[in-house]
Amino acid sequence: MKLVKLGASLLVLACGGGGEDPQDRTGAAEEDFRTLAVVDSIGILMGDSSYVLGAIEGVAHEADGSILVLDRSTACIKVYDGEGGFIEQIGRRGSAPGELENPISFALLGDGRICVIDPWRGGFLTYNPDHTFQKLAVSYNSNTPALCTGLNDSGFVAGQVGYENENGTVSAHVSMLRYDLQPEPSHVYMENEFVIDFMDLSATLERTLFWGAFTGDRDGNVYFALMEPDIYEITGIREDGTRFMTATREIEQVAKTEQEKADEEAWVLAKLRGWDANWGVEDYVPQPYRNQVRQLGVDGQGRLWALRGTREDPTFDIFDSQTGEFLFTAVLPDIGYQGLFLNFTVDQGGILAYSENPADYPKIYIVELLEQ
């Protein structure tokens, strides 16, 4: 893969490799395995534009069970009821108040407002709980945060990448931050700084794109896991920065297949193009092993869900979010291998999923945990 120059807007993405190894079921006989199922979906190939989806950049449940879908291709948020029926559209492409141009992420805040990050429209735009436009809450058009998740009140947690050039030495700063609709973050939960090796920009991409997974809950707690092939550890952090919980598991390392590596290379290039970030990369080389934790979420019962990165069928480890106690494992069978491309949102309203590279057309999967 070849790009032409180093840009200054690469965004943290809490995602990693997926896949399965038969030996990954270490202790399976002792584990409580439960089954997830796709019970419905939203999206069609052609027809009513309300149901035709493009570049999905995030999904979430509102308090009443409505489903929000951020579609960057149409620069709007589409709103559906819990059964997938279209309700309305928030915003549209344009430069007038409330319109969007390149929305890259959004968060449903604890106070019911929606915060959309759109650097082309100047920063953080907020919409009221009734979906009417409120204001451009914060001007922010460079090194914008990404992958934001709502917390309590007006806060959200987000990843951010910044760069610093000191006497010709360029350093990257990868951070996990809390924002409260102010220009500066109200808290820095995690920060990683390293010097960029221009002879090995592939490693730089690896350390920024696949750095960590995070999520939050309505009490203001944040949960974080490093994306590593040999480490499975999730840390709970209070709003004041106090670490209160650690969840760990013993999971064997699993090597990526050649197809996975090729998919990852193509995926990275597509992401950089979508973000309008240009990197001087020659032959991006993925790391050989799958990351142990891919994504995190907290459900309506206060349980922490961790998407295991070592299995082909989507597999979650579920923990008590306050104590870190392992509860059970949930598996979504028969959805087919989608590697890096399958994203999940677990929140108070349930479980949603979508593929960034669907085999047919973009859709939202509505997922439920089956009764035992």
Question: What are the segments in which pLDDT stays under 50 over at least 5 consecutive residues?
Answer: 1-29
The SSE order reads EEEEEEEEEEEEEHEEEEHEEEEEEE
The number of domains is 1
CATH superfamily: TolB, C-terminal domain
Q: Into which percent range does the helicity of residues fall?
A: under 10%
State the name of the first-level CATH class.
Mainly Beta
Structural class: mainly beta
| Shape by Cα distribution | globular
Name the strands of the widest sheet in spatial order: 18-19-20-21-1-24-23-22
What distance separates the N and C termini? 47 Å
Task: Quote the CATH topology.
Answer: Neuraminidase
Outline:
The protein is mainly beta.
Give a written overview of the molecule.
The chain has a single domain, classed as 6 Propeller (Neuraminidase). With 372 residues, it is mainly β. The protein is built from two helices and 24 strands. A hairpin with a 5-residue loop joins strand 2 and strand 3.
Keywords:
372 residues, mainly beta, eight-stranded mixed beta sheet, 24 strands, globular
Topology record:
Blueprint: E1 33-42, E2 56-61, E3 67-71, E4 76-80, E5 86-90, E6 105-108, E7 114-118, E8 123-127, E9 133-139, E10 146-150, E11 156-166, E12 169-179, E13 187-195, H1 201-209, E14 212-216, E15 222-226, E16 233-237, E17 243-248, H2 258-274, E18 293-298, E19 303-308, E20 315-320, E21 326-331, E22 342-347, E23 350-355, E24 364-369
Parallel strand pairs: 1-21
Antiparallel strand pairs: 1-24, 2-3, 3-4, 4-5, 6-7, 7-8, 8-9, 10-11, 11-12, 12-13, 14-15, 15-16, 16-17, 18-19, 19-20, 20-21, 22-23, 23-24
